């Protein structure tokens, strides 16, 4: 019997790229309206589950703060934090997930950096 070797990085990348194609909930970008609300200070992000992160976890004012969104491509958290004033870098293993962030940034005039790498 031959051992099957699975490359976890390649497997993860392919899975998340497919999720984007399928419209998975973690791959659906935020709306332009969500971005506009974030610009006005009315924002929230969800990291796991369905409940927004407690705002006390983050500074009251994100203006100029450096934020690393690790393994969080998909056009959700990074764009919202960028709209709230943070300098955002989104690091993810999926080119398509990062593409969602890039699409929102271009659509809504946001500055954020995306970095592709294994996670």
Structural class: alpha/beta
Give the overall average pLDDT.
Answer: 95
Helix and strand run: HHEHEHE
Return Rg in Å. 15 Å
Strand order of the largest sheet: 1-2-3
How would the global form be characterised?
elongated
The total count of helices amounts to 4
Helicity, as a percent range: 25-40%
Q: Strand fraction band?
A: 5-15%
Unreliable stretches:
none
The number of E-state strands comes to 3
Amino-to-carboxy terminus distance: 31 Å
Largest sheet: 3 strands, parallel
Describe this structure in words.
The chain is an alpha/beta fold and 119 residues long. It has helices spanning 8-22, 32-39, 77-83, 95-108, and strands at 66-70, 87-92, 112-116. Helix 1 packs across helix 4 (95-108). The N and C termini lie far apart (31 Å). Strand 1 (66-70), helix 3 and strand 2 form a beta-alpha-beta unit. A 3-stranded parallel sheet has the order 1-2-3, with helices on one face. It has 4 helices and 3 strands; from the N terminus they run H-H-E-H-E-H-E.
């Amino acid at each position: 019997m031959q051992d099957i070797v699975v490359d976890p990085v390649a497997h993860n990348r392919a899975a998340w790229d497919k999720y984007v194609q399928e419209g998975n909930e973690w791959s659906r970008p935020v709306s332009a309206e969500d971005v506009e609300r974030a610009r006005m200070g009315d924002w929230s992000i969800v990291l796991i589950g369905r409940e927004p992160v407690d705002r006390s976890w983050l500074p009251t004012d994100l203006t100029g703060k450096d934020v690393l969104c690790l393994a969080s491509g998909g056009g959700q958290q990074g764009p919202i934090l960028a709209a709230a004033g943070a300098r955002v870098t989104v690091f993810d293993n999926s080119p398509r997930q990062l593409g969602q962030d890039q699409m929102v940034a271009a659509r809504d005039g946001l500055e954020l950096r995306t970095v592709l790498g294994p996670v």
